[in-house]
Specification:
The complex is a heterodimer of chains A (about 450) and B (about 450). Helices cover about 40% and strands about 15% of the residues of chain A. Chain A has about 450 residues and is an alpha/beta fold. By secondary structure, chain B is of the alpha/beta class. Chain B is built from 17 helices and 11 strands. Chain B has helices spanning about 1-10, 20-30, 75-85, 105-115, 120-125, 170-175, 215-225, 240-250, 275-295, 295-300, 305-315, 315-330, 340-355, 360-365, 395-400, 420, 425-435, and strands at about 45, 55, 65, 130-135, 140-145, 155-160, 190-195, 230-235, 255-260, 380-385, 405-410. In chain B, a hairpin with a 2-residue loop joins strand 4 and strand 5. In chain B, helix 10 crosses helix 11 and helix 10 (about 295-300) packs across helix 14. The longest helix of chain B has 17 residues, at about 275-295. At the A-B interface, helix 9, helix 10, helix 11, helix 12 and helix 14 of A face helix 9, helix 10, helix 11, helix 12 and helix 14 of B.
Amino acid sequence: MKFPRTEEQSMNNDLENRTGVPTPLTSRRTFIRAAAAASGAGILSAGLAPISASGSAEKDTQIVLPTTTKDVTPFKVHVPQAALDDLKGRLATVRWPDRGSATDWSQGVPLAKAQALIEYWRTRYDWRRAESSLNALPQFRTQIDGLGIYFIHVRSKHENALPIILTHGWPGSIIEFLQVIGPLVDPTAHGGKADEAFDVVIPSLPGFGFSDKPTEAGWRLPRIANAWAALMARLGYSRYAAQGGDLGAGVSSWMAKQRASGLAAIHLNLPIVFPPPPPPPGGYSAVEQSALAQLGKYASDGSGYASIQATRPQTLGYGLADSPVGQAMWIYEKFQAWSDNKGDPAEAISVDHMLDDITLYWLTDTAASSARVYFESFAKDFARVPIDLPVAVSIFKGDFFTPPKVWGDQTYSKLFYWNEVPKGGHFAALEQPELFVAELRKSFAQMR
Amino acid sequence: MQMENDLENRTGATAPFSSRRQFIRAAAIIGATGLLSAGPVPIRAQQSAKKAPLLVLPAATADVTPFEVHVPPAALDDLKRRLATARWPDKEPVADWSQGVPLAKIRALTDYWARDYDWRRAERALNALPQFRTALDGVGIYFIHARSKHERALPIILTHGWPGSVFEFLDVIRPLTDPTAHGGSENDAFHVVVPALPGFGFSDKPLEKGWNVARIANAWAALMKRLGYERWVAQGGDWGAGVTTALGHIQPPGLAAIHLNWAFVFPEKIPTEGLSQDEQRAVDAAAIFQTQGAGYFLEQATRPQTIGTALADSPVGQAAWIYEKFHAWTDHDGDVESALTKDQMLDDISLYWLTNSAASSARIYWENKPATYVGGKIDLPVGVSVFPREIYRAPRSWAEKTYSKLIYWNELAKGGHFAAFEQPAAFVRELRACFSTLRV
């Protein structure tokens, strides 16, 4: 249990933390100006509200998030030690299934790989390191459409920085973007130029991470897109870009479809061009056929997780909420299947990064609430939507779906950038942070 | 000593079984020299300090070896400890079962499981029946084998599905073997064989690929032969219907007819127009199942090990995974307990949990993909009972096109996917009526 510090302390510490990160952040003056612009009277008076464990002895492993208001309230992550002890206890008493009849990944995570990951998680992984990297960044929560939304918000020192909202998907999280924040906000320290700077906003989807879990149905992708537009307005941004892959591409696409006020362009690393446009008179070309085959393989062999999450997220959630091993495998399988690797996901994403993401899901008990986005939207809103706002696309060739440009042309009337990146997969920013940053710089060069 | 106990157990069961003489004769027929010398082999617990206790099944041989269920106390203690320390997700944001088992419902069921449920009662019910294990095609298969006292009883092999188990059939075994004590005539008697599918219950978990319904069907044919049955019938629903349908295709020597309570009679190509009302209803129901109810199916068919790893570690997860299907597929009035009691559901759920079969049972979906409702034409005599709350109700018109010898057809007023479990009396009546014409 930690107690909020005094206002003065927390404000100072907060600003210190901002300037303590490797990337130079906004000056105190800029910060205060932004706060004023956002008309958040409470923003500077709000102390940091650390996560507290709920009181009773029995429940001291449960994380309780501070309630939010329309103010933008600084936030830090400090998971109660009891929750970490509970995790280790569960990992130590895991009951494993039999090894089964497959030695490869064709039936899911092979037992030996599962046991190796869990052993590392239990004996060597350090959540406090992940927490420190989060707390080195300015984090906030604010209430939008009735729901507390967590986000990282790092402003560039460059006056003309382009604001951008980066949206993760499932089973990703804000962890995906941690390595790209510095290069985006501070290009001159990372091989770029001042006019490549971004102000970066990285929210957690509703039901994910330290955002609230919706207690009512209806948080579909278009509603999330609306909330993001409201967030950018609240932060005082009147012209900005949006970026995403996976469900984040869905949210970004809906923002564009809704022509969110101030949204100038979007960048997608998973263009939502499925189901594909109808075939031309001569039939689909070879590259189109190959993308169709990817969709076919996904439907027949790769979408079990989506099917159960889209139909019975609650049932699935019981096993994953109770078993960190189950939660880990549910996600680890996707790191293996969707990242650019030759069999071992650690070739593409470090084990620590995978576990940062997995641990975030576990500690926030978000298996069920994150799966519900599929129930809300997978069949209804996560499908090809023609967009007339400017769209940029980067295809990371190691992703499980690498559609041809012609489908982009048929879907986006202002497709101003399309590039195929030879390395990297579904978790582009996590797997290839430098290439990801290069793609955003190139995409948005002409939007400056 | 063990032999005597074994026979006592047999004769101690309520249902009259084969006389000792018949039993010994049967053993001689199947040439199993070890049969009578093998005593019941209780399951052992393999324990390390912190790890959950593992059940170790006795190695099966080509002999038919008596078997009894005694789950070690450590496994039950471990279950209770896990239930007591369950961590729950947040409550579903809907007021019904549309997103899965509601939090309040699963908490109520698992509270009962932890506090009031008695696995030893279920064990006693199993151990009151003659149980065996024998190796078939390299895998130890567990089965209940209850013989009728009536000489001309018709041997029948009943096959469960997922998430069912041998527990589905417990209430029908005695009426089938002993009809005169259960409202039937001597001519209604059956010798009953109830195996657990490979990877389920106290059958072994296959360590090699290839255990699809055809291979299981062949193993069942070998089992019936090993038990000395020269003329027999087969019955099943769910995957049991898959296995039984495969038996219908294979037509092993001795198989006289099959009965299905879920018939896979869809045509290869469903006509786009001209469907009868029954056909349209079946197509609609199958489509709803495919789009809204088959998540578990696709996951188990593609990544059984991943989902199995979660369910192996969480009894709450395992319970919810199964409970949802009892709710979805039984004929109830809104409360699933109007179809199945908590004890019945937990007998089945506990069996999956204690035998750690979440992954191994899910693999039957992986082995049989792509599974369809097109079971294919069968020329052996087929009987079908359609229970109204089945996932889809098979239309008679399609059954007549699929089965050249449709010997029996009935559409019942009550019951669902777990026909024998939900409606044991009606299920028994169906089997008696279906096979009455096959008696010799």
